[in-house]
Amino acid sequence: MRDDETVTGWALAARSGDERAVEQFVRATQLDVRRYVTHLSGDPQATDDLMQDTYVRALRSLPRFEGRSSARTWLLTIARRVVADRIRSHSCRPRLAATDDWQSAAERVQPRGVPGFDEGVALAELLAALVPERREAFVLTQLLGLPYAAAAGVMGCPVGTVRSRVARARETLVALVTDAERAEPGRQPRTLAGAAAGAGAVA
């Protein structure tokens, strides 16, 4: 599990221009940022641009980062604004990507050849069926492991709202898995259901 205290220490050290600390901070957080902006934007093809914009803004803002929240929470809040700005600039609501795009995005952000990889790809497909608010809450707490309070800070809503969105997202995902099991009995739904309804993040 990622050590948020260590990552925050790197961010604080990077404020003074410590290039090694900057490199460690980016390396430790880039997978979470990639996953988050991919799922939040619904546009996997824009992921690299969104990541670049996120880190440009973050590195410019580092001198003002005081460590009042974890650096990861602070960075994901910036990433959320970057995605929101992109959506506004295109004057459209968030759209759900095609299944093939979601699968490609999942393959890019997850390691290959490890247990659960196939289930992770399938879960990414299922996440596309969630409304954006529930998908974001689920990704932050269940995939990125943020505590509910930290996720609430990123999303700008009460903790209870995050809990409710996660609970409803789980219900939807489990229902979709159940439907898939009926339609395709050989699709290993039990493992996938476990991923969808698994233990939540730290409260």
UniProtKB/TrEMBL annotation:
Stretch list, region Disordered: 184-203
UniProt xrefs under Pfam families: Sigma70_r2, Sigma70_r4_2
Gene Ontology molecular function terms on file: DNA binding; sigma factor activity
RNA polymerase sigma-70 region domain mapped to chain residues: 26-91
Recorded superkingdom: Bacteria
GO biological process, one term: DNA-templated transcription initiation
Similarity comment: family membership: Belongs to the sigma-70 factor family. ECF subfamily.
Protein name per UniProt: RNA polymerase subunit sigma
